[in-house]
Write a structure and sequence with these properties.
Number of helices: 2
Bound molecules: calcium ion
Structural class: mainly beta
Largest sheet: 5 strands, antiparallel
Oligomer: single chain
C-alpha cells in the first residue's frame, strides 16, 4: 500500500505434534522450535512489503515481489522452483518493460499457472497489470488501466473525481476471471477480465465502483466458488482513532450484475495511521484480508475475514481476529481472537490464505508478545513491545477454532533500527497450497547469518515452508 503519506514523500523443540480435531496434526521440526527460515533477498538495503504466490500447477514454484528502499524506481522479485529452499532474485520495474514501479506489489497465480502482478507507478495514475506465463521468470505488461470514461449507475461527477490518485491495488485470479481493486482517489474501483487458459487473458472491461466506499481503503478482494467477487476495505477516521470494515459483493463476477451496497462488518479501533511501538515510523492499519473457500469441501462457499483490532482503543494492545460468512457477506460470525498470548502487546499486519486443495486456513502476523522489555530472545533492547517476531496458526475446522500459535521467525526484529522509513511496510505475504504454508515477512534479526547488512540493521525478506499434514 502506498498510503498517502508515502505518496507525498515520494513526490519529494521436542517434536511438537499438536493433535487437531479431525485427526490432523501439525508436523514441526524435532530439532528446531521454529521451522527453517530462508533469507530470500540477501541484499544490502531494505526490502519490505512483500507479496508471495505459489503456482498451483507446480507447487514447487513460488514467487515473491517486494518494495525496495534505494533508487527511484524498482521492486525486488525472486523465484523459487524447489519449494522455497533456494531463490533467484532480480530488480524489476526500474524503467524496464514494467515502467517506473514505485511499490505496493500484489501477486496471484490462477489455476492455469498464470501469474498476475499489479503495483503502483511512481508518476502515472494508471493501474498496471503484468502477466508471467513462465512461473515468474519474466513479466509482460498486459494492461495499463486508465480512468474509466463512464460507469454504469454512476454520475459523471463521480467519474470525473476518479484517479486524482490511485493507491493500494490488490489482484486475485481464479474461476476463469481476474479481479483487481484499487483506491481510485476516493472510492474503491474494481475491474475484472476473463481468463481462458495460460496466457489467455481478455480485456479489463468490467469496471465498477463499490458503493459506499468513499475514503475506504487498505483492503482485499476474493473470488467465490460461483465466480462472485467480494471486496473489503477499512473506512478510516483521521489519525489513530478508529476504522470500520465494510464489504461489497458482485454476485456474478463478470456478469451483468454490479457490486451491491456496502455491508458493515465491525469496528476495529485501528485508524489509517495507527502508531504502535513495533511500527513507530510508519504506523499500521487494520489490514483486512479475505479468503474464499472454493475447495468443494465441507465449508465450500464460506468466506473468511482476518483483521487487526485494538482494545482498548489507543492501548497499543492490538490483536488479530477472524470472522466468517456463509451468506456471501450479508452476515458474519462473531470475532475469534487468533493470537493466543496473554500479554497486552501488539499483534499486527495479518495475512490469511486458504488451501484450496483442503479448505484449511493459515494466518500469519507480526507479534511482539515475547518483548516484555526484560531481555531474552524476544527483546533486543530492554524496551517493551517494540521488537517483533513472526507467528502463525492454522484452522482445520472452517475457522471455528485455531491451532495453538507457533513462532515462525527464528529471530527477533526491530523495524525502527532498520532505517526503513516505512518500518516493515504495510503488509505481509502468505500463500497456502497443498498442505504447505509459505509466509513472507521482513526481518532484520539475521537469524540465518546471511543478511549482508548484519543483525538489527537493514531488512531482508524471509520465508519458510510450514507443513500441515494428515
Ligand atoms: Ca486506535
Ligand atoms: Ca495484543
Ligand atoms: Ca524491546
Ligand atoms: Ca536487505
Amino acid at each position: 500500500m502506498k498510503r498517502l503519506l508515502f505518496v507525498t514523500n515520494l513526490i519529494a523443540i521436542a517434536a511438537l505434534l499438536v493433535a487437531l480435531p479431525g485427526g490432523t496434526a501439525i508436523a514441526r521440526s524435532m530439532a528446531d522450535p521454529t521451522p527453517p527460515n530462508v533469507d530470500v533477498s540477501q541484499r544490502l538495503g531494505n526490502e519490505s512489503e512483500e507479496a508471495i504466490a505459489v503456482n498451483p500447477t507446480n507447487p514447487k514454484n513460488i514467487v515473491i515481489v517486494t518494495n525496495i528502499a534505494e533508487g527511484v524506481s524498482g521492486m525486488f522479485a525472486s523465484v523459487s522452483f524447489d519449494g522455497g529452499q533456494t531463490w533467484t532474485g532480480r530488480i524489476i520495474g526500474n524503467d524496464d518493460n514494467l515502467g517506473d514501479s514505485c511499490c505496493d506489489p500484489s501477486l496471484s497465480f490462477d489455476e492455469y499457472g498464470n501469474l498476475f502482478l499489479t503495483y503502483l507507478y511512481n508518476v502515472e495514475n494508471l493501474v498496471p497489470v503484468a502477466l508471467s506465463t513462465d512461473g515468474g521468470l519474466t513479466f509482460n505488461l498486459i494492461a495499463n488501466i486508465p480512468k474509466p470514461t463512464s460507469l454504469t449507475g454512476q454520475t459523471n461527477n463521480r467519474v470525473r473525481r476518479l484517479y486524482r490518485f490511485v493507491d493500494q491495488p490488490t489482484i486475485t485470479a481464479a474461476k476463469g476471471e481476474v479481479w483487481l481493486v484499487v483506491n481510485a482517489g476516493g472510492p474503491m474501483l474494481a475491474m475484472g477480465a476473463p481468463v481462458s487458459g495460460l496466457g489467455q487473458v481478455g480485456n479489463f472491461s468490467a469496471q465498477e465502483i463499490a458503493p459506499g466506499t468513499n475514503n475506504c481503503t487498505y483492503g482485499d478482494v476474493a473470488i467465490g466458488p460461483n465466480g462472485q467477487v467480494m471486496q473489503v476495505c477499512t473506512l478510516t477516521e483521521s489519525g489513530q482513532g478508529g476504522g470500520k470494515l465494510f464489504v461489497n459483493v458482485d454476485p456474478d463476477g463478470l456478469g451483468p450484475a454490479v457490486f451491491g451496497d456496502r455491508v458493515f462488518v465491525t469496528d476495529t479501533h485501528v485508524g489509517g495511521f495507527d502508531f504502535i511501538p513495533p511500527q513507530p515510523d510508519r504506523s499500521v492499519d487494520a489490514e483486512p484480508g479475505l479468503a474464499w473457500d472454493r475447495s468443494g469441501g465441507p465449508h465450500n462457499g464460506r468466506v473468511y475475514l482476518v483483521y487487526t483490532n485494538e482494545h482498548p482503543n489507543e492501548s497499543d494492545n492490538m490483536d488479530i481476529y477472524l470472522r466468517y460468512s456463509d451468506d456471501n457477506g450479508a452476515t458474519w460470525s462473531d470475532g475469534l481472537r487468533v493470537n493466543d498470548d496473554s500479554t497486552t502487546n501488539s499483534q499486527f499486519m495479518p495475512k490469511i490464505s486458504l488451501d484450496q486443495t483442503t479448505g484449511n486456513l493459515a494466518i500469519v502476523w507480526y507479534d511482539s508478545r515475547a518483548d516484555l522489555g526484560t531481555g531474552g530472545p524476544g527483546d533486543t533492547n530492554g524496551i517493551p513491545n517494540d521488537d517483533a517476531q513472526f507467528w502463525g496458526a492454522f484452522s482445520t475446522d472452517g475457522g471455528v477454532s485455531l491451532t495453538p500459535n507457533f513462532q515462525i521467525s527464528a529471530g527477533t526484529s526491530n523495524s525502527h533500527v532498520s532505517g526503513n522509513h516505512i518500518d516493515y511496510g504495510d503488509y505481509t505475504g502468505l500463500s497456502f497450497f497443498g498442505g504447505i504454508a509459505h509466509p513472507a515477512w521482513s526481518d532484520n534479526s539475521n537469524s540465518t547469518g546471511n543478511n549482508p547488512d548484519g543483525a538489527l540493521h537493514k531488512l531482508d525478506i524471509y520465508t519458510s515452508a510450514i507443513s500441515i499434514t494428515p
